[in-house]
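Consider today's protein:

***
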Amino acid sequence: MLMEKLGLGYGDANTLAILAKQAAAPAPADADPLSAIYSGNKAPLRALHERLSAAIDEIGPHEKAPKKAYISLRRSKQFAMLGPATKDAIELGLNAKALAASARLKAMPPGGMCQYSVRISTPAEIDAELMRWVRSAYEAAG
């Protein structure tokens, strides 16, 4: 019908039909990506994730792109990754160049998705120092 009435080619008509079918499909019962990421023994870390995510939201607008095991934070490019590291800590990966050395900040090997990572176990670790690092990565992602 799309080909006959609208003059679409086969590929375009097929793509449109598939997208329409997907849009009409009911959302999964648990469409919240954090529920999948923070399940089982990592469930208690969700509150810490949400607290850090809210602090990052205050820096400025950005996209949150759920992945299988973490949330990618993006502007024109990814500036951070946030997800569980262990059952006791979340990990914040940062795409930032030349951050000042700190015992909390771990430099990652070249070629990875992030240049630095920080493990966070308590709300008290979401402090001014951490947020300066996040802001640096946020601003660099333009």
Observations:
- The mean pLDDT is 91.
- Strands lie at 63-66, 71-74, 78-84, 90-94, 106-107, 116-120.
